[in-house]
From TrEMBL:
Domain of life: Bacteria
InterPro entries tied to this protein: DUF1540 (IPR011437)
Pfam family, one: DUF1540
Name the UniProt record assigns to this protein: DUF1540 domain-containing protein
Originating organism: Lucifera butyrica
Residues annotated as domain DUF1540: 5-46
Length: 50
């Protein structure tokens, strides 16, 4: 499995200096249409910084 390294979501708990430190990530489509670009996806691993 590939390692996720880059994270540009500064509000995410797992983002440490633009590196993702989650054990794994889950990406889903963000709508009910067929996804054709990354704009149609969302990260369900996101956890807001406290």
């Amino acid at each position: 499995m590939s390692k996720v390294v880059k994270c540009l979501c500064e509000e995410c708990h797992y983002n440490n200096n633009h590196e993702c430190h989650a054990d794994g990530i889950e990406v889903r489509s963000s709508g009910d249409l067929q996804v054709k670009t990354s704009d149609g996806t969302s990260c369900h691993t996101f956890k807001a910084k406290s």
